[in-house]
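Final report, closing paragraph on structural work. Over the funding period we assembled a curated collection of sequence-structure pairs, and we close with a single example.
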Amino acid sequence: EGTPGPRELAARNRVFLERAVCASVHDRIGQVIDLGAGFPAPRPLHEVAKAARDTATVAYVDLDPVVVSHGVAAVQVDGARPGQRSATVQSRAARMRRGPSSSCES
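Its predicted structure, as stored:
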């Protein structure tokens, strides 16, 4: 058995991520941040978290505007309303793409 290829490594990584989110939510961690969300995913993390505990929330973060738009669409399809939170992610991503500024922006 040789070294696993990229697809196998990605699949293993996803299984680990889902198990880690599930275990964390079971251990009373109610909020999860998915940095570099990389949509589309076979089973979005908010579904994994909600299956473990219905009050769990997931924040998806990514700088790629295509990924952000896919993420917003996926969350909306599931019946959630991202509202201001997705707008905040998009505007922050836009500021980061423009580069550093001389003042501290929040």
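Confidence is low (pLDDT under 50) at residues 82-88, 101-106. The first helix runs from residue 6 to 26. We thank the funder for supporting this effort.
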